[in-house]
Amino acid sequence: MRKIAFRNCIIRLKPGVFALLIVMAIQALTGCNYSRMRDDEAVQAYNQPFPKMPKQTIPIEGGIWIEREAVPSDLANAAPQTAETVALGAERYGFYCIQCHGPRLDGNGTVGQSFSPLPANLKDQTVQEQTDGEIFYKIRFGYNRHPALYSTVTDYEAWAVIRYMRALGDKG
Q: In the chain, is it the N or the C terminus that has fewer CB atoms within a 10 Å radius of its CB?
């Protein structure tokens, strides 16, 4: 048994515990050589410039704010007027819109029935007379009680929903 004096206290340690404390003290004093770590490849990688980003990636400048600052009536529908686009619009309408606007686009969806006033009747003349860009802007950034869906619905999906809405709106 060894005796260690520590501030007028005597601690009695077994030889194994004493040796362990000595080893831990040596490790703590020598520690890690941080100056050597700065030369490591993994750390040096952060000092290199970023490569050019390929198209179709998330922008670091502009992004959604370019759309946000656009004049809604000047926006043109980017989705082609095809049966495939209308089908995609119908599918996405079923994902994102049907709960409030209903299966007949009349504002009588399961959730929409609890709203006062009811959600817009998308077949109504006041809605159908709006440009595609105005409707797109309202889908993406919200309007009155309509939530902003820019983080949920992609641009193309919103344009496709408008194509679907126009296709059903023409049928009365």
A: C
